[in-house]
């Protein structure tokens, strides 16, 4: 195989970029972080005709004028020397909007291929595309594809391996703007810039791009700066605006209209599309909220109902009745010491099994969230919720991170970086942990099943509703105190409805399930072992005669009284909550170890049923719902909000509210019951 090349895949959000990336690379992917930032960096490798190609999946962006952290990452990467070319994925059904980014990428002068995606949708709309004419006007290879169906993938691979070339022409900015850009590019020749990218830098400097002015303005002679300012001023005479960014955008969009007019042939009579017909129902002013509520009910009922319960019981049987006894018999047969057998079977396997038995329910939850996103309905939900969120000072754009919070708080917090307004972004981050993450689901299922055996589903749903209500109350409080600014305008693209790709959905579920399993096999494994050792040994490393004299018992004695006013002043419950600071799933594994259940959920449920009353059990669940997020989410909040002060502030804010909510519920409940 010859030396490989590195290609960046880039496109608008909802342009099919993820589907194409999965189609090209399959399971041959690696997920890490960009240096210095907690944004997923997905890379994949393909080999075609003996040529290796590394593909880097960049965050979805609308243009190379960065406002959010993801847009900054994407632009900095394509401006670096790390890539050999660009694969631009374009939504052919929304070509005008997508070509704005395409033409900016062309102006970079890098080898490039345009993948014209969603061709099946285009044909369904009766639109005909003259691909040859589009390719001639863009000056780069254009390959029509359907990533979902695998259409034309071989041609695209050929282009990536053999057909990538620099653009044969630069984008045409109309109304005299193009002449100003060419003049500015000639002026920039002395600067240390790539020659092929001079038109891009010229356009951005005339636009007034702050980042590039800070980076290169200091190297400019005064006369160069004066000439660039004069060119920017001269563009106003051809436009009705003095906003340089708007002047350049108008000039480019007018050229895009010419390109589309020459290469797209639409039917004379417009029939309502499938998307328009569906939106007339799901965005109806009366039916929108009931339809959304139905989908949420379906998601939670499937997760916590008969299907989720049956799958969870099957996983429990596999782990506790087959795996653990087999390991114990094997260790006994080879003469392993009794204490080590107990450590492995009761501590490690018992703790991890107590968490993994809830894996099916968590996968079901991730499945529904993936379907909502891939179909395009998730964007509609944000639009529907905009009016309600504005009452607590946020826009509908905040809803997407908050909904993601039902899956996992860490990526949900990272998703807030797409918001331009700093106050909106920080407030969204502070409210997202109130949305109960999937990692808390094992705790709910365990305690609710033990304490409320007749109605565990209703109890769990009430916790999700309570989290939302507490988020609303917290939002009102924050808006009156810390975040007083007016929320930004809400502009959201509503993508075309599409059937989710089975392959893409399965890959998405696999990556999330693998992350959960990895944590169970590392963090939770270590926590289970540590908890078992602390429970069974004294500070002098002697075997503890009883749990109260163990290291864990001594630690709990100091902190358990704090929770007595909440009704669960029981040391094992207190220690479990401390373990939950590492990972919320660890609450279950810790209880399994401390109560000596060995991963047997039926035994553990019986033990918890004797420890908790319905009131104290519900109070424990409320505190679990609301107190500070796990270490992973805590570190992400620190990075996204810009310092430890914010991170500790969020943790303290949530924990105080959790304590107060649990205190009120227990004290009022004690009076009433």
Brief write-up:
This protein is α/β, with parallel strands linked by helices. Helices cover 61% and strands 8% of the residues.
Account of the 3D structure:
This protein has 673 residues and is an alpha/beta fold. Helices cover 61% and strands 8% of the residues. The protein is built from 30 helices and nine strands. Strands 2-3-4-1-5-6-8 form a seven-stranded mixed β-sheet, with helices on both faces. A two-stranded antiparallel sheet has the order 7-9. Strand 5, helix 3 and strand 6 form a beta-alpha-beta unit. It is elongated. Mean pLDDT is 80; it is low at 31-38.
Give the uncertain stretches in residue-range form: 31-38
Tell me the fraction of residues in β-strands, as a range.
Answer: 5-15%
User: What strand line-up does the widest sheet have?
Assistant: 2-3-4-1-5-6-8
Helix segment count? 30
Q: Profile the largest sheet.
A: 7 strands, mixed
Helical residue percent band: 55-70%
Q: Can you tell me the overall shape?
A: elongated
Distance between the termini: 75 Å
Write out key terms for the chains shown:
single chain, 673 residues, alpha/beta, 7-stranded mixed beta sheet, two-stranded antiparallel sheet
Write the layout of secondary structure elements.
Layout: E1 2-11, H1 17-25, E2 29-33, E3 40-48, E4 51-57, H2 69-78, E5 85-91, H3 95-106, E6 112-117, H4 119-124, E7 128-129, H5 131-138, E8 142-144, H6 153-163, H7 177-187, H8 198-207, H9 210-216, H10 222-235, H11 244-263, E9 264-265, H12 274-282, H13 288-304, H14 306-333, H15 338-356, H16 359-375, H17 377-390, H18 399-404, H19 409-415, H20 422-431, H21 441-451, H22 456-481, H23 502-536, H24 551-559, H25 571-579, H26 586-594, H27 601-611, H28 614-626, H29 631-641, H30 644-672
Parallel strand pairs: 1-4, 1-5, 5-6, 6-8
Antiparallel strand pairs: 2-3, 3-4, 7-9
């Amino acid at each position: 195989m010859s030396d490989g090349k590195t290609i960046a895949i880039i496109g608008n959000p909802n342009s099919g970029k993820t589907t194409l990336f999965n189609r090209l690379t399959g399971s041959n992917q690696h997920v890490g972080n960009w240096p210095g930032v907690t944004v997923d960096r997905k890379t994949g490798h393909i080999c075609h005709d003996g040529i290796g190609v590394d593909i880097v999946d960049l965050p979805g962006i609308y243009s190379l004028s960065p406002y959010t952290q993801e847009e900054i990452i994407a632009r900095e990467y394509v401006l670096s020397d790390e890539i050999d070319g660009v694969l631009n994925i374009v939504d052919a059904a929304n070509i005008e909007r997508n070509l704005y980014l395409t033409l900016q990428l062309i102006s970079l002068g890098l080898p490039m291929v345009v993948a014209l995606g969603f061709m099946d949708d285009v044909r369904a709309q009766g639109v005909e595309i003259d691909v040859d004419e589009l390719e001639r006007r863009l000056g780069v290879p254009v390959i029509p594809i359907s990533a979902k169906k695998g259409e034309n993938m071989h041609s695209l691979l050929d282009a990536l391996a053999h057909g990538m070339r620099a653009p044969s022409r630069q984008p045409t900015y109309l109304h005299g703007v193009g002449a100003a850009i060419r003049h500015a590019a000639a002026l920039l020749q002395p600067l240390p810039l790539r020659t092929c990218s001079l038109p891009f830098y010229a356009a951005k400097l005339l636009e007034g791009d702050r980042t590039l002015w800070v980076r290169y303005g200091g190297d400019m002679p005064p006369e160069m700066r004066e000439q660039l300012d004069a060119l920017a001023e001269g563009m106003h005479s051809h436009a009705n605006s003095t906003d340089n960014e708007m002047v350049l955008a108008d000039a480019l969009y007018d050229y895009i209209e010419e390109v589309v007019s020459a290469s797209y042939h639409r039917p004379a009579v417009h029939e309502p599309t499938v998307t328009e017909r569906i939106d007339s129902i799901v965005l109806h002013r009366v039916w929108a909220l009931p339809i959304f509520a139905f989908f949420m009910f379906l998601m939670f009922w499937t997760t916590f109902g008969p299907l989720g319960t049956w799958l969870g019981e099957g996983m429990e049987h596999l782990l506790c009745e087959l795996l653990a006894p087999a390991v114990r018999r094997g260790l006994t047969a080879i003469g392993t010491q009794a204490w080590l057998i107990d450590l492995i079977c009761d501590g490690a396997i018992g703790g991890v099994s107590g968490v993994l038995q809830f894996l099916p329910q968590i996968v079901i939850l991730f499945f529904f969230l993936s379907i909502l996103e891939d179909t395009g309905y998730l964007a509609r939900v944000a639009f529907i919720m905009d009016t309600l969120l504005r009452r607590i000072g946020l826009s509908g754009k905040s809803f997407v991170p908050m909904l993601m919070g039902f899956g996992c708080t860490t990526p949900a917090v990272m998703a807030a970086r797409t918001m331009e307004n700093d106050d909106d972004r920080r407030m969204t981050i502070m409210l997202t942990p109130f949305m109960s993450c999937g990692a808390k689901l094992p705790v709910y299922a365990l305690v609710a099943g033990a304490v409320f055996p007749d109605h565990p589903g209703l109890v769990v749903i009430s916790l999700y509703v309570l989290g939302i209500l507490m988020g609303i109350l917290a939002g009102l409080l924050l808006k009156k105190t810390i975040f007083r600014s007016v929320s930004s305008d809400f502009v959201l693209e509503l993508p075309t409805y599409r059937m989710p790709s089975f392959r893409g959905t399965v890959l998405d579920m696999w990556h999330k399930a693998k992350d959960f399993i990895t944590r169970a096999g590392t963090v939770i494994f270590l926590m289970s072992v540590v908890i078992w050792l602390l429970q069974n040994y004294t500070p002098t490393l002697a075997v503890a005669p009883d749990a109260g004299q163990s290291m864990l018992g001594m630690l709990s004695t100091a902190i358990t009284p704090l929770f007595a006013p909440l009704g669960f002043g029981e040391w094992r419950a207190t220690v479990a909550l401390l373990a939950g600071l590492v990972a919320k799933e660890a609450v279950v594994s810790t209880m399994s170890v401390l109560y000596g259940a060995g991963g047997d959920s039926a035994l553990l449920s019986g033990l918890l049923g004797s420890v908790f009353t319905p009131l104290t059990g519900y109070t424990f669940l409320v505190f679990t719902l609301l107190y500070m997020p796990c270490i992973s989410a805590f570190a992400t909040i620190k990075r996204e909000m810009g310092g430890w002060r914010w991170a500790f502030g969020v943790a303290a804010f949530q924990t105080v509210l959790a304590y107060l909510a649990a205190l009120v519920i227990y004290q009022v409940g004690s009076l009433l019951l």
